[in-house]
Amino acid sequence: MTLDPDTEQLVRERMTLHGISFKQALNDAIRDGARGRVDYVFQQPTYDVGLSGDLTRATRLAGELEDEEVARKSRDGR
Fold first, then answer.
1. pLDDT, tens digit, for every residue of 37-61?
2. What CA–CA distance (Å, rounded) separates 47 from 59?
3. Do residues 11 and 27 make contact, with C-beta atoms less than 8 angstroms apart?
């Protein structure tokens, strides 16, 4: 059997998470998938960038910059 790179990565993540062998992780993933269970929980890493307080102005500025970039690309035909 040959796994696609993305599914192999999922099995390896399961191995690390549960401290089990590749064989056990693969078998468990197949069983869970066949039963409709999901064992994978996405967690977005967060980082402290040293900012505090109200970031409303920063969010507004980021939105304005994004709008300008979209408009520029539209004018350039991209």
1. 876 677 888 888 787 777 788 888 8
2. 17
3. no
Q: Rounded to the nearest 5 degrees, what angle is found at the Cα of 16, between the Cα atoms of 3 and 42?
A: 80
Q: What are the DSSP calls for 35-65, one per residue?
A: HT-------------S--S--HHHHHHHHHH
Rounded Cα–Cα distance for residues 76 and 78 (Å): 6
Helices 5-18, 22-35: axis angle to 10 degrees equals: 100
Cβ distance 12 to 24 under 8 Å?
no
Q: Is 1 helix (H, G, I), strand (E, B) or coil?
A: coil
**Threshold 0.85, pTM exceeds:** no
Give which of 19, 13, 65, 63 is closest to 39, Cα–Cα: 13
